[in-house]
Amino acid sequence: MSKKTNVPEQPASATLPADNLERNLAVAQPNTNQKLPHIGVVGDTYTILLTGKDTGGRFCLIDMHIPPGGGPPPHRHDFEETFIMLEGELEATFRGTKRAVRAGETINIPANAPHQFRNSSSQPVRMLCICSPPGQEDFFMEVGVPVATRTTPPPMLDEAAQAEFRAKAAALAPKYRTELLQHA
Q1: Cα-atom radius of gyration of the chain, to the nearest Å?
Q2: pTM of whole model > 0.85?
Q3: Most buried residue among 66, 77, 128, 144 by CB atoms closer than 10 A?
Q4: What is 38-150's CATH number?
Q5: Cα–Cα distance between 71 and 73 in angstroms, integer?
Q6: Is pLDDT above 60 for 70?
């Protein structure tokens, strides 16, 4: 180990793999690219910026618009999830402990840890979500509904439609290595 960086030293003979010329530069323009999927999920709008296919299966990147009162129910999953707060403030609950997360801050949720977030402010929140490995973007695409733009709210659901959505999400969650937890 290098004493300065705590990174294992590579033998002089170690080389990087060749550049994979089948992969291309991915550019995501969430405010102007009409081809990016904007998905309404639990009252929030998630724009899929990069899929696992875009990143060679390493991660996905999601632009999240969370209106006041928005956020998912308690859950956990077997992949890492990082949130980079761009605008606003929300309340994150990690293993039962609540804390405020504000614009300019980044939090990482370890795999399998129970968590949730909620926008308890009066202003929308914008954050980037990185999931590694990818797959969460596929869950959102399958469970959510397409909407027009990055900030378009999903349709309001009556009680019956909400119950149907919850049942669909619960049925799909195991396929995407996710467990929905009971509200505390």
Answers
A1: 18
A2: yes
A3: 66
A4: 2.60.120.10
A5: 7
A6: yes
